[in-house]
Each structure stands twice: as C-alpha cells, then as structure tokens.
Amino acid sequence: MKKTIQQASIEKWFFLLVAAVVLYLFWSIIQPFAILIITAGIAAVALVPLDQFFFKIVKQRKLSAIMTSLGMFLVIIIPLILILLLIAKQATELIQLSLGEQGWLTTFNLTDHKIYQLLPVYVQEQILSIDLQTVGLNVAQWIIDNIGGLFSSTSRFLLNIFLFFIALYYLLVDRKKLHIEILALSPFDNEVDAKIIHRIASTIRHVVFGILVLAIIQGLFAGIGMTIFGVPGSVIWGAFTIIAALVPLVGSALVLVPAVIYLFMIGNVGSAIGLALWAALVVGLSDNIVAPYLIKGTTHMHMFLVLISILGGIQIFGSIGFIIGPTILAAFLVVIDLYKSGILKDGQWS
To answer: Which residues 6+ apart lie within 8 Å of 282 measured at CB?
Structure first.
C-alpha cells in the first residue's frame, strides 16, 4: 500500500528521534575515551608511512600494524614517561635548590652585576618589580602538579595506555575499511572526499613530523647541552625549549640565551661560551639539517598558528592538547582551503 505524505513524514521524524537517542547513548558510552580515541586516530594517520614500510617487508597487515604500534611504544611512549618522571623530579630539586634559604633565587641580586648597570632605567625598574621567588615557585609547582596528575592513578594510566595501543592497532589494520565507510557516508563526490582526506592527513603529518618532532629534537639537544655545561634543571629547560622552538623568529634562543647569561653571571664563563657554541652549532643547525627530511611532501603551516593551537589545546584538553590542538588547526585550515578552492557552482562542487 502506498504511503501517504503524512505517514512518510512521521516515519522520517521517528527515525530521526531514534537516531538522536541512539547517538546520544553511544556518545555517553565512548565520551570518557573520546580524547584517547582521537589521539590514537591522529597517531594512526601520522604513522601510516611507517606502517606501509613494515607491510612491504612482512606482507601481512596485522603484523605490520603490531610492528608499528610496538615501535611507537618503544621509541616514543617509554622515553616520554621516563622524561616526564625526570622533569617532575628535577622540578622538586629546583624548588629546593633555588628557593631555599641558600638558594640562588633567594640570594641572587642582579643589581650587583655590571650588566644590570648597562640596561635602560625603564628595564631596570621592570626587573626590580619581578618577584623571582614567586615566579620560580609557581612554575615549578605547576610542573609538579600537571605531570604528577598524569601518574596519580597508576591503574587508570596503564588502562589508557593499553586502550590507546589497541585503538591504534585496529585503526592501522582497518584504515582502508574506514576510508570506504567515510566515503559512503559523505554527501560529497568521492573526488572531493579524497581531496579532503589527503589534505587533512598531509597537514597532520606536517604538524607531527615537520613541526613537533623538529621541536622535540631541538629540545632534546638543548637539554643535552645544558646538562653538559651545568645548567640546573636541564631536562625541564629542554622541555620548555620544545615550546620555545615553536615561537616565530626567536625559537629555541628564548631558553638558551637566558641559560648562557645565567652561566656568565655565576662566573662559569667557559661553560657559557661552550653552551653558546653548542646552541649555534648543534641546536641551530638541527633545524636546517633535519627539517628538510621531516617536512618534505607535507602541507605548510605557519609556526605562530601552531604555537597558539598547542597552547590552546593544552589549556582545553590537558597535556594531550599538544597533539590535538594542532590537529584541530589542521582541519580548520583544510576547511578554509576547500572553501576558497571549491565554491559551489550550480549545485556542484567545483
């Protein structure tokens, strides 16, 4: 029997109501793990080239996914956990070293140094208005609170690590099936869908490999240099160098120059010169040598936008926002780019 317009309308709205309820319930179930799944998705997109490399060797999709996931665990996750624990340890030591009764922030008086006398009066007034003890305590306490929070519940932390790698594994194994499902659900032509997916994937890889990995490499070299030449809390300052490396124009110098000045002021002239040379020859040249290999074939993103997206991502999503923030920026830029190049004409995507 032929349906009336009213019956068809009722069925449509009933289906939409049921779909909305089911989607809400489904979201309620996965919401606690949404950030984890998104992060695994970003990692899967970034690691596709590595997975393809392993697949060419072993010729088995599941085995290549296991090798890729295991490689990420050994090369990234374990060192990251160790570094975070070391940062928390050094932050505690810095509080004791710098803010105790004999700590250098307590006894240090910049006005005794000749360099202070060379500064303009306005700059001298601004320096005197800064309470170094309060600033140092706040920074160190923030580091301890945020990193300690990651390990506050060991069972929860281990569960998240386990679920992350399970999600990463299946996303790598089933990525072609997911690609087909996305194409089937999208209202756009397959050509447009392919363009969107390619640009988002390319931009994510640029963010992960062309920007974040390069910043991490600079932070690693900076931390090694500060350890060699005796800067207290070298691992912490190496971590700050990762963020500083994303700042346009100044980059890692934002951390390394004050470190060199600090060594000069405490009388370690040889160490100061050594760190300055290390910063120029090792940290600086790493940008010119490593960057071309990491950024090759990826979509360019402005460093300032990446910096803002990282800081905003960390503020909203916590420490994992370091990855999620730039990824959201990548998707936003792809949408803007497609809007500029794919304006609808006569109902068709040009």
So the answer is: 221, 225
Low-confidence residues of the chain, pLDDT below 50?
A: 107, 343-347
Cβ pair 227, 274 in contact under 8 A: no
Q: Cβ distance 294 to 209 under 8 Å? A: yes
pLDDT digits (tens, 9 = 90+) for 95-105: 666 555 555 55
Number of C-beta neighbours around residue 168 at 10 A: 24
CA distance 43 to 63: 17
Which tokens go with 94?
A: 């810095």
β-partners of residue 344 are: 349
pTM: 0.64
The answer to whether 336 and 176 have CB atoms below 8 angstroms apart is no
Contact 108, 98 (CB under 8 A): no
Distances (CA, A) of 175 to 14, 159, 170, 203, 207: 33, 23, 8, 18, 20
| Residue 128, amino acid | L
- CB crowding 84-104: b at 16 or more within 10 Å, else e: bebbbebbeebbebbbeeebb
Handedness of CA 124, 125, 130, 133 (dihedral sign): positive
Q: Measured between alpha carbons, how far is 275 from 260 in angstroms, rounded to an integer?
A: 6
| Residues 164/40, Cβ–Cβ less than 8 Å | yes
Provide the residue count of the chain.
350
Cβ atoms within 10 Å, residue 284: 17
| Cα–Cα distances in angstroms (integers) from residue 236 to residues 43, 230, 260, 279, 315, in the given order | 25, 13, 16, 17, 19
The domain ranges of the chain are: 189-342
Taking residue 340's Cβ as centre, other Cβ atoms within 10 Å add up to 8
Q: List the beta bridge partners of residue 348.
A: 345
Measuring CA to CA, how many Å separate 189 from each of 137, 199, 277, 283? 56, 16, 55, 46
Predicted local distance difference test score (pLDDT) of residue 140:
60
CA 288 to CA 338: how far, in whole Å? 31
Collapsed DSSP state (helix, strand, coil) of residue 348: strand
8 A C-beta contact, residue 232 and residue 94: yes
- First-last CA distance in the chain: 42
